[in-house]
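Protocol step 4 of 5: obtain the predicted structure for the target chain.
Materials: sequence only (see below). No template structures provided, no constraints applied. The aim of this step is simply to have a reference model before the mutagenesis design in step 5. Sequence pasted as it appears in the construct record:
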Amino acid sequence: METKNGAVVRKHLGYSHIPQHFAAEVNVFCRDYLNPYLNFHRPCLFAEEIVDAKGKRKKRYPCKGVMTPLEKLANLPEPERYLKAAITLSGLQREATRISDNEAARRLNQARVVLFRSINRRLKRSA
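Step 4 output (structure tokens):
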């Protein structure tokens, strides 16, 4: 989790302290924009382990390992067993193709600007 916070969440939310009374708004932003973007539209590098002649394991990151988390899930054997009962792989794939990757990134950035303008405006007013 710390890796995700450092590499992904902090990239989008920054390192500044966000007061607790804004947590609900930040959670809504994460649920509605950040998490769908990360799971459906942002490619990741997935490692492939190779064992050499001495038995040492090495990680390689081949080009074929570049995919979104949803694509990785779909490539697993029996992906449905990793999903909750009410969620289907085809439903997730429909959600992912509803908008383009670029449009998802644009919406994420726009929502982040709106969120932080709202937070900054209220922080300045209370100070």
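Step 4 remarks: The mean pLDDT is 90. DSSP finds five helices and four strands in the chain.
Proceed to step 5.
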